[in-house]
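Hi everyone,

Forwarding the result from last night's run.
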Amino acid sequence: MVMISEDIDLLIEVKNFEKTPNPLKGIQMYLSAREAGLPIPEPIALWLEQCFQKWMDEEGKPPEGSLDKIMGLTTSQGGTPVFKKEYLDARDDLLCLRVAKLIYLGFSLSDATVAATYVLFESDWNDTAYKLAVPSADTLIKTYKKWRRTPPAKLKIAEMSSYLTFDYIKGLPNHLIPRKLRKQFGT
């Protein structure tokens, strides 16, 4: 049987879920498998079964018996809501990948973070129910330093040489491109 990329992506997500269960990812994997006509991955089915069993045992009585609480979809008071955390993680991953690309093309870390936050600020990226702020360049530097040490980031950074060209910076305003690169590429 030949596996298609969606199957492989789903398998990777399932393995990640087994290590660190994320309820939002679990629900997304369930829906993705159903949409693709694939069987529900066993770890997801088992997790759902355990959640439903606990809900039945608690007779759905809040607060402990609420399905949100059982599935881990609620946060402690003052905690970041599950969807908001997911959006923040996706935003940070996008920004850090942009920073890594700009560094690969010759930007300093400082210049890359300023350019990445500028591009995000100028785009229509926040179409969520939450008011997510664009992090400062200083905050992004700290986030990037942590991000680049993670296995997924290392893989993304290693793959860059196969596809990244200087066309990537053509859309940036001239003032965000370091002088040495402006002279080198005539921008």
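The first helix runs from residue 5 to 19.

Cheers,
N.
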